[in-house]
Amino acid sequence: MRVTLPHDGGWTTVREHLLDRLSKLSAAELDAKLAAGDVAAPDGTPVTGSTPYVGGRVVFVRREFAPEPVVPFDIPVIEQDDRILVIDKPPFLATMPRGSHITQTAVARLRDELDLPLLSPAHRLDRLTSGVLVLTKHPRWRGPYQELFAARRAGKTYLALAPVLDGFDRPRDVHLHLVKVHGRHATTVEVGHPAPNAHTRIALVDQFVAGGPLGLYRLEPTTGRTHQLRATMSHLGAPIVGDPLYPVQQTVARDDFDHPLQLLAEQLTFVDPIDGTSRVLRSGRRLPIADAYHQATPPLGNGARSD
């Protein structure tokens, strides 16, 4: 946690200010942090109990994080080179530390497991979505690869399981206006809005029965709105299997590992921004994900390849 010391105030030491400012910490807890080196200047110099107070300076206080449920899935590596690491992200694992998800994220786990302390994502996948995720190994490569995705120069293909919809035997382009209101989990669709901001090409590529007719869909978004695919499929009347948020938020355990969202980032294609080579990155996963939908017998997806 970054703390900027105010210019005004009557404190003589940094400790005195932190004791007033960090009201949730007792004096004993703060002293323990100081002794452990958990309070430091920007250059890493430890702050002690006697460090003089100087207004305008910055100190960093290491935060304590609540224990997180362990996501019990490995993170397969699809490929890597000196610049990027491409993984097959499992469901329930956030891309990067944010909010209540800190240690159980792809970035945090891989930094530790692969000894890549400078690892960062080139783009993001929803926490519940599985599949291809690209990360950069060093800050010098972060900009070119993040710009690649921000400029929508990467082709994305997803697979999803959802109820069968009529009229999607051939690919159809769906244009919607999606709105994500701050403080609300779900993205909403503004019906009839004159300026759509989300485009997805949708095709029904297979059908099967698992407690009811389900379809295997190929989804190709050209925009990247929050929950775009989940909100779009729900709006069409075919919410993706295993979605706890659409069409309505369900009162189930947040991490029901036996019932993952059946949405897979199956393929990424792009021209490498550094060496100009054509990249085709594919997930090794198939739908249904995990064994929660074993009624489907052989995994689907053989006929859904986009190559």
From TrEMBL:
It comes from the Bacteria. Pfam families: PseudoU_synth_2. Coiled coil: none annotated. It catalyses: a uridine in RNA = a pseudouridine in RNA. InterPro entries: PsdUridine_synth_cat_dom_sf, PsdUridine_synth_RluA-like_CS, PsdUridine_synth_RsuA/RluA, RluA_PseudoU_synthase. One of its GO terms (molecular function) is catalytic activity, acting on RNA. Gene3D superfamilies: Pseudouridine synthase. Residues 84-235 form the Pseudouridine synthase RsuA/RluA-like domain. GO terms for biological process: enzyme-directed rRNA pseudouridine synthesis. This is RNA pseudouridylate synthase.
